[in-house]
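Minutes, project huddle
Topic: does the predicted pose make sense with manganese (II) ion bound?
PN asked that the exact inputs be recorded in the minutes so nobody has to dig through chat later. Recorded below.
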Amino acid sequence: MALNTVDLKPRVGSEIRIDKAELLSGGASPAIRQLLEQRGVVIFHGVDFSDDELRSFGGSLGPLQTTGYDDGAQDALVKVTFDKSQQRAGTAGYFRGTFHWHMDELHRDVPPLASILSPRVLSPAGGETEFANTYAAYADLPESEKKSLEKLTVYHSVESAYRKMIPEASEEQIAEWRKKGHKIHPLIWTHRTGRKSIVNGITAGYVLGMNRRDSDALLGQLLDWATQPQYVYQHQWQMGDLLMWDNTGTMHRVLGYDLDCGRRLHRVTLVGEEPLAVAA
Ligand code: OGA
Ligand code: MN
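Predicted holo structure (tokens), as shared on screen:
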């Protein structure tokens, strides 16, 4: 089916105009998935989904990841918030790394395909979420650079992310982060479609086989490259919005906000379909 869409920026992001009943019918879901892969992020205004509607729409796009809770319950819905009163026991905890450019769950062999957010409480200031299209950023690299980057692999871990954020952590803290594990991912992801994107962000520790200084410089330069304004869409949240991003072809981050303001977004996440890791 043909979707009624408006580009948000030339290289990233589309708004889809569709009525809520049609969205919930799932009839548009294959076309939405296709558009998401092309545009990195898609948004809808005035949808105002309930939690059940969010689960149901998410499920029409593909299988959802679930979280197990201490009481034995399994739920696909995650509350993205620093408000402890909203967290259920067993929740892994919302990750401070979210304020830095990242892709979700790169400590897995198969990272999630996509996530969908629906706002519940807005922050009075800040809290805009930004998305960088890493397919578009890759496409614009000089051909000679593409060739050399394609050979490289990168160590990713939650520990690497926290070490950048908290350089003077204790040994105990580091041991805790290490439990999350790590993965070796290619620097350039060749997807099953043949399209290529850059894999980078706060979880990137170092490039294998490269000295530390060169590795830091390369990852830093590539991050700067991929987050230039032409590749980035910044979302200013309004109640009623629905936003989804392709976690395999974008990085994202949230801009600073008061951690005590109660900001809360509800999220469902689509199970990944494409293995990325080349080694544990
Ligand atoms: C996430 C995330 C950003 C935000 O849910 O994975 O990074 O705006 N959220 O809170
Ligand atoms: Mn995230």
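Observations noted during the meeting:
- The CA atoms of residues 188 and 211 lie 19 Å apart.
- The pocket of manganese (II) ion (ligand 2) is lined by residues 98, 102, 104, 252 (CB under 6 Å).
No decisions taken; revisit at the next huddle.
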